[in-house]
Automatic annotation (TrEMBL):
<keyword id="KW-0735">Signal-anchor</keyword>
<keyword id="KW-0256">Endoplasmic reticulum</keyword>
<dbReference type="GO" id="GO:0005787">
    <property type="term" value="C:signal peptidase complex"/>
</dbReference>
<dbReference type="GO" id="GO:0045047">
    <property type="term" value="P:protein targeting to ER"/>
</dbReference>
<keyword id="KW-1133">Transmembrane helix</keyword>
<dbReference type="Pfam" id="PF04573">
    <property type="entry name" value="SPC22"/>
</dbReference>
<dbReference type="InterPro" id="IPR007653">
    <property type="entry name" value="SPC3"/>
</dbReference>
<comment type="function">
    <text>Essential component of the signal peptidase complex (SPC) which catalyzes the cleavage of N-terminal signal sequences from nascent proteins as they are translocated into the lumen of the endoplasmic reticulum. Essential for the SPC catalytic activity, possibly by stabilizing and positioning the active center of the complex close to the lumenal surface.</text>
</comment>
<keyword id="KW-0812">Transmembrane</keyword>
<protein>
    <recommendedName>
        <fullName>Signal peptidase complex subunit 3</fullName>
    </recommendedName>
</protein>
<comment type="similarity">
    <text>Belongs to the SPCS3 family.</text>
</comment>
<keyword id="KW-0472">Membrane</keyword>
<dbReference type="GO" id="GO:0006465">
    <property type="term" value="P:signal peptide processing"/>
</dbReference>
Length: 180
């Protein structure tokens, strides 16, 4: 006869194996789902100022200001295995010093059960749009992207981008005296 501890160990090992198989099955049921949704980004007011940069030996750097509108219906991204969405809006641009610059301007977390339709107007960036030099003034290649991370209950954490973008053109002349 087996002892009580031996029987408890067997029961625990069997339960753990069954739970691992169920978790893997949960992962497989949504692993190959496409998490895409159409996004519309519109740009409002845009200005750039030459501000003092206290982070390094450089004198002044460009600080961009803008307002934007975001429309998206993210209901198709939710299924039984999605716990939350982490949305973030990034600005991507090139300068003569850097081939690619990416700056996160805004983010939001949408939990399961919350309203998944986004219709935000006149938003300002949550984080500073600071360039590490003077690469924003007159830059015509600034693109805004809405991307999201789908946080599942079980499985991998995919990094996905929205299907819509907005383009920003920063003015050549600094707009001094205009505050946001």
């Amino acid at each position: 006869m087996n002892s009580l501890l031996s029987r408890l160990n067997s029961l625990f090992a069997f339960t753990l194996t069954v739970m691992a198989c169920l978790t893997f099955g949960c992962f497989l049921s949504t692993a190959f789902k496409e998490y895409g949704a159409p996004v519309h980004i519109a740009i409002g007011r845009v200005s750039v100022k030459n501000m003092e940069d206290f982070t390094g030996p450089k004198g002044k750097s460009d600080l961009g200001f803008l307002t934007f509108d975001v429309r998206a219906d993210l209901d198709s991204l939710f299924n039984w295995n999605v716990k939350q969405l982490f949305l973030y809006l990034t600005a991507e641009y090139t300068t003569k010093n850097n081939a690619i610059n990416q700056v996160v301007l805004w983010d939001k977390i949408i939990l399961r059960g919350e309203n998944t339709t986004i219709n935000l107007k006149g938003l300002r960036p949550k984080y500073f749009f600071f360039d590490d030099g003077n690469g924003l003034r007159g830059n015509r290649n600034v693109s805004l992207w809405l991307a999201w991370n789908v946080v599942p209950n079980a499985g991998m954490l995919p990094l996905l981008a929205g299907q819509g973008t907005g383009h920003v053109r920063f003015p050549e002349v600094y707009e001094a005296g205009r505050s946001f």
